[in-house]
């Protein structure tokens, strides 16, 4: 989540927005956008914090911390229910399958209760995971029985990451087309343009993914004049900035 953490909402001017033409990101802005999306997929797929996860209410948690939380809870307390899917990650200890119930995965570094996750019907992992391999799953149900904390209805995090990154890309496209969009998406799009504007010549954006990523990570916070210039350019193109609040707290911290 390196790029996402650096995209700060530190803008100071709001604008009225005329109806009309869409904004077309230039090649550098498009390269920054693609770098952000790649970073999102990697972060979510490995169980980390991400914009797409937060926007969908998917909370990341390690299997070890889930086991510790269950071990520390009052045994007489009611078992909590998952109101939103959970991004479960950790090292794999063992795997197997039960006829009619699909594959299951036990996580390492969990005591009592141990943590087991089961794929939803029709879901499969790419390749055959081995003991010690890192695993991340998005699960919709949780249950505690005897000494096992079970998560079910799970889907590979990588598949969810690709789907949610595509959803975010569509939301950004809608913003550039002048359609009303979520405030966080609007702020992200504005910051993509800001960071693209601050990149030096030879940044590798576009053309060199590795160099582009390093260049984005090295960008300093833009000046007020540069912020205003980006907002002016978006305003003149007919982008809807109505949900953007220049006084809101930064979406991402250092």
Number of strands: 7
Walk across the major sheet and give the strand order: 2-3-4-7-5
Q: How many helices does DSSP assign? A: 8
- Structural class call reads alpha+beta
List low-pLDDT spans.
Answer: 1-21, 249-254
- Beta content comes to 15-25%
User: N-to-C terminal Cα separation, in Å?
Assistant: 11 Å
| SSE series | HHHEHEEEEEEHHHH
How would you characterize the largest beta sheet?
A: 5 strands, mixed, barrel
Shape: elongated
Residues in helices, as a percent range: 25-40%
Overall mean confidence score, pLDDT = 83
Q: What is the CA-atom radius of gyration, in angstroms?
A: 21 Å
**How many discrete structural domains?**
2
Structure explained in plain terms:
By secondary structure, the protein is an alpha+beta fold. It folds into 2 domains: 125 residues, no CATH class; 101 residues, OB fold (Dihydrolipoamide Acetyltransferase, E2P). The protein has 8 helices and 7 strands, in the order αααβαββββββαααα. A 5-stranded mixed β-barrel has the order 2-3-4-7-5. A hairpin with a 6-residue loop joins strand 3 and strand 4. Helix 2 packs antiparallel against helix 5 and helix 6 crosses helix 8. The N terminus and C terminus are likely disordered.
Q: SSE layout and pairings?
A:
Blueprint: H1 2-6, H2 27-45, H3 51-55, E1 59-62, H4 63-72, E2 86-98, E3 102-107, E4 114-119, E5 134-139, E6 141-145, E7 148-156, H5 157-176, H6 183-198, H7 209-217, H8 224-237
Helix pairs in contact: 2-5, 2-6, 5-6, 6-8
């Amino acid at each position: 989540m390196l790029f996402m953490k650096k995209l700060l909402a530190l803008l100071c001017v709001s604008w009225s927005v005329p109806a009309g033409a869409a904004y077309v990101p230039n090649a550098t802005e498009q390269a920054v956008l693609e770098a952000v999306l790649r970073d999102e997929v990697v972060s979510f797929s490995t169980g980390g914090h991400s914009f797409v996860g937060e926007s969908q209410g998917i909370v990341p948690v390690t299997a070890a911390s889930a086991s510790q939380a269950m071990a520390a809870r009052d045994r007489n307390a009611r078992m909590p229910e998952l109101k939103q899917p959970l991004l479960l990650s950790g090292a794999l200890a063992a795997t197997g399958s039960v006829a009619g119930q699909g594959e299951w995965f036990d996580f390492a570094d969990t005591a009592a209760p141990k943590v087991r996750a089961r794929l939803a019907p029709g879901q499969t992992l790419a390749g055959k995971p081995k003991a010690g391999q890192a695993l991340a799953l998005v699960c919709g149900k949780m249950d505690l029985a005897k000494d096992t904390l079970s998560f079910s209805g799970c889907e590979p995090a990588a598949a969810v990451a690709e789907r949610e990154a595509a959803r975010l890309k569509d939301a950004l496209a809608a913003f550039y087309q002048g359609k009303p969009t979520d405030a966080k998406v609007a702020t992200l799009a504005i910051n993509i343009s800001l960071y693209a504007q601050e990149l030096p010549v030879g940044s590798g954006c576009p053309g060199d993914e590795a160099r582009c990523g390093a260049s984005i990570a090295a960008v300093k916070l833009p000046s007020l004049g540069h912020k205003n210039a980006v907002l002016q350019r978006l305003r003149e193109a007919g982008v809807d900035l109505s949900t953007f609040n220049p006084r809101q707290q930064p979406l991402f911290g250092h």
